[in-house]
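Per reviewer request, we include the raw input and output of the structure prediction for the construct analysed in the revised manuscript.
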Amino acid sequence: MEIILAVILGTVFGFVLQRVGAADPDKIIGMLRLTDMHLVKTILTGIGVSSAVLFIGMMAGIVDSGHLSVKSMHAGVIAGGLLLGLGWAISGFCPGTGLVAAGSGRMDALFYILGGLVGAGLFTLMYGSLAETAVFTSLFGGKVTLAQTGKYDALVSGINGTLLAIIAGAGFILVSFKLPKSLR
């Protein structure tokens, strides 16, 4: 049953990405150049709504915070994020949008996917030699959240993580509505 739900949700997500233009490298490059804020507004709205709904669900007891997974923060995450951002800016694709673009018939997305697979393969081969270096040294306590939300330590103590997340979600939504169509 879980695999069927995953396929349905993945298909819906891919459809939405295609509809909002996130699989179009020109839209992505416009977003990164701040000349087309449509995707920025869409992303901010999505983060805001999903954050608020998730944490309201936790507050109502519908969602168990034990199911949330926090990944460790280390220098490799920062380096990987910079590489992802550089690849995104050069290609106009990120992993999700690249797959959606390939599904819609874009041949350049196939090269993007191939490059991602080669990069992942190289990382896998290099992992053993990188594992003991400073690249994987925990930063900010490793597995922490901004505020207390469950089993993980908080960077800021004394703040209700659920309330903070709902306020942050509302803030993202507000910012998305206030942003102009272009910053240029």
